[in-house]
Specification:
- By secondary structure, the protein is mainly β.
- It folds into three domains: 32 residues; 101 residues, Immunoglobulin-like (Sandwich); 82 residues, Sandwich (Immunoglobulin-like).
- Helices cover 11% and strands 43% of the residues.
- The chain is built from two helices and 17 strands.
- Strands 3, 4, 6, 7, 8, 9 and 10 form a seven-stranded antiparallel beta sheet that branches. The protein has a four-stranded antiparallel beta sheet with strand order 14-13-16-17, with no helix packed on it. Strands 1-2-5 form a three-stranded antiparallel beta sheet, with no helix packed on it.
- α1 runs antiparallel to α2.
- The protein is elongated, with a radius of gyration of 28 Å.
- 21% of the residues are buried.
């Protein structure tokens, strides 16, 4: 019952009338206060998990393994992952019933074009709901499939364009992009007047994770725009040359 429930209000009002008629008007405020307590939602918030860490973040060739403290109120935990390098959205959470998890889809196996995978963890209780997020944990690696003992890159689930690194830069920076399917890719650089200053990619590219460098040795200091078109996907980002 809540404050819009007639039966709830009727009981409260009848008790107030009875208290007044019996000469116990001094208890009317107590009746209102006691009923009001039932209108206030449960304000208890389940605490977020403690000591969420990746225990093997430097173990090249292994899957990242996460641990955290046991939680007396949690029915289960929700583990989220996103590829921060390509700015993708958080993926659907993985439900974990214990206090550890190994991500078998990611390998700590840098090949010069590694990605920054970000993880966060929430505790969930059927009584108290979902906790706030833990601090984010970063893992540098790649998504691979291991076939016949060899690593091959997995195919990304969506198109993406990363923020160039470094930025600002002088004179070389790297731009990464990802393709879930083979596409004709056009990646161009423009100045703030909209004039094309460089064409980095203009060809058919296979599905996968890709990177390209831009050497701005001949470019003036200032802000530049880079734009990618791959099929129906288009994205634009800014970068700054400082000399």
């Amino acid at each position: 019952m809540h404050d819009s429930d007639p039966s709830f209000l009727d009981v409260r009002d009848k008790m107030i009338v009875s208290a007044n008629s019996l000469g116990y008007s001094q208890y009317v405020d107590d009746i209102r206060d006691n009923f009001a307590l039932h209108l206030i939602p449960n304000l208890h918030n389940i605490a977020k998990p403690e000591n969420f860490v990746c225990t093997n973040s430097t173990s090249v060739g292994s899957n990242p393994h996460f641990q955290w403290d046991s939680h007396p109120e949690a029915d289960y935990f929700l583990l989220y992952r996103r590829n921060a390098t390509y700015g993708t959205a958080w993926e659907s959470p993985i439900t974990v019933t214990g206090n550890e998890y190994t991500d078998t889809e990611v390998w700590i196996y840098p090949l010069g074009d590694e990605n920054d995978y970000v993880y966060r963890l929430h505790a969930h209780s059927s009584t108290y709901g979902t906790s706030d997020s833990t601090a984010h944990v970063h893992v540098i690696g790649q998504q691979f499939e291991k076939n016949a003992g060899e690593f091959t890159k997995s195919i990304p689930k969506e198109f993406g364009l990363s923020a160039n690194y470094p930025n600002p830069f002088n004179p070389v920076t790297t731009i990464k992009y990802q393709l879930p399917k083979a596409s004709h890719v056009a990646l161009k650089i423009y100045n703030i007047l909209g004039q094309e200053v460089a064409k980095l990619v203009h060809t058919n590219m296979p599905a996968g994770f890709h990177s390209v460098k831009w050497d701005a040795f001949k470019a003036a200091s200032g802000t530049y725009i880079y734009r990618i078109t791959a099929g129906d996907f288009t994205a634009v980002k800014k970068m700054v040359v400082i000399k």
